[in-house]
Design goal:
single chain, alpha/beta, 42% helix, two-stranded antiparallel ribbon, magnesium ion binding, Aldolase/citrate-lyase_domain, binds magnesium ion, Citrate_lyase_beta/mcl1/mcl2, binds pyruvic acid, binds acetyl coenzyme *A, Pyrv/PenolPyrv_kinase-like_dom
């Protein structure tokens, strides 16, 4: 383990200094597109201003014979990328054990390293994966003469990754956040689901039999398969000062269940989710923006609490230092979103 004194020193001579704080920019949706798909690339100019993060995906969902075209397509997108709009440009590179990742990183950092904000690493299993990418990125940044370090985002999608989640988050000052990878994680854990995120009708609890009659009809409720992992991610990210994201929801047509899954993640502490299809962009935008009524309530609590200490009653509910802090979380998020979104600024009236 590195000494705390060395933690913020560049890992290569000439590489930019690591960041001390992870910037908290609006991050409600990470919109995935396949840079080898001309139809999707054609939509980038229209989609970019509508999303907080646009991600050129090079890993799963890009066919092996399109890997090189996807990398080249992302370089083209990056070259014409205008960062002044405030949208972040990310990439998901191939896994560290794949035949493509070395070319992904060397090409992208050299060609568009000054346009990219974050590199998402799939299938991260432990701190050693982050250390490898950390050093390699520092060398590539130095060679490319970059002034700003690239940040790293890990997908949690193996049992070992989940077991090592805290050390992953703390492995480097480059660590920006985590996403849940429910599809690969399900396979790695030998779960018996065959879908991408969301619940399963068989994973349920049933109410007790009325008067001991086990044959009576009884209500059941589906349970959240992902609660444990998302909660662990949120805590690990909190410890490291980085940002947790829910991942993908594969049933594109089921916009209602997608919204539910995103909202659970929002309420639990996640800052955003992935959108795999344009229809999911609006869902994430709505869910991960606090409702105007919540913002108005948070404002009332903060005003009523004065310096933030003590206890007051508001509409029959006790408020104290801890509710004041929760309300500040909502207000901070609302203010940062309002800076980017004039409609929200009007609705929040902060
Ligand atoms: C487990 C994981 O790793 S999840 C992350 C990896 N997966 C992904 O990144 C998937 C990304 N999304 C996709 O590939 C596609 O959305 C699919 C395959 C799910 C569905 O694609 P389609 O069958 O073409 O959907 P549909 O017909 O509804 O698309 C409508 C239009 O939106 C476009 N479109 C679809 N998804 C996207 C997208 N993510 N970004 C931009 N445009 C898109 C389509 O090209 C199509 O364009 P057209 O009107 O010019 O023909
Ligand atoms: C997100 C992802 O990569 C997965 O679910 O496997
Ligand atoms: Mg995966």
């Amino acid at each position: 383990m590195r000494s705390p004194k060395d933690f913020f020193r560049p890992l290569a001579i000439g590489a930019p200094d690591p960041v001390r704080e992870i910037p908290f920019r609006p991050s409600r949706m990470i919109h995935f597109f396949d840079p080898s798909n001309p139809k999707m690339v054609a939509k980038v100019p229209d989609l970019a201003p509508k999303v907080d993060i646009l991600l050129g995906n090079l890993e799963d969902a890009v066919a092996a014979e399109h890997k090189e075209a996807a990398r080249a397509g992302l370089v083209e997108v990056g070259r014409s990328w205008d960062p002044s709009g405030g949208t972040q440009l990310w990439t998901r590179v191939n896994a560290l054990d794949s035949p493509w990742v070395l070319d992904d990183l060397t090409t992208l950092v050299a060609e568009i390293g000054d346009r990219l904000d974050v590199v998402m690493l799939p299938k991260v299993e432990g701190a050693e994966d982050i250390h490898y990418a950390d050093r390699l990125l520092a060398q590539l940044e130095a060679r490319a003469g970059l002034q700003r370090p690239l940040l790293l985002h890990a997908i949690l999608e193996t049992a070992r990754g989940v077991a090592n989640v805290e050390e992953i988050c703390l492995a480097s000052p480059r660590m920006q956040g985590l996403s849940l990878g429910p599809a690969d994680l399900a396979a790695d854990r030998r779960m018996k689901t065959t879908r991408v995120g969301g619940g399963h009708p068989g994973y349920l609890v049933r109410e007790d039999p009325p008067d001991g009659d086990v044959d009576a009809s009884r209500a059941t409720a589906q349970q959240d398969l992902w609660h444990y992992t998302v909660a662990r991610m949120v805590d690990a990210c909190g410890v490291a000062g980085i940002l947790p994201f829910y991942g993908p929801f594969g049933d594109i047509k089921d916009t209602v269940a997608c919204e539910d899954q995103f909202r659970n993640a929002y309420l639990l502490g996640c800052v955003g989710a992935w959108s795999l299809h344009p229809v999911q962009i609006g869902i994430a935008k709505q869910v991960f923006s606090p409702e105007p009524a919540e913002v108005a309530w948070a404002k009332r609590v903060v005003e009523a609490m004065g310096d933030g200490t003590g206890a007051v009653m508001l509409d029959g509910k006790m408020q104290d230092d801890a509710t004041y802090k929760q309300c500040q979380v909502v207000l901070d998020l609302a203010r940062s979103l309002a800076e980017r979104d004039p409609d929200l600024a009007r609705e929040y009236d902060l």
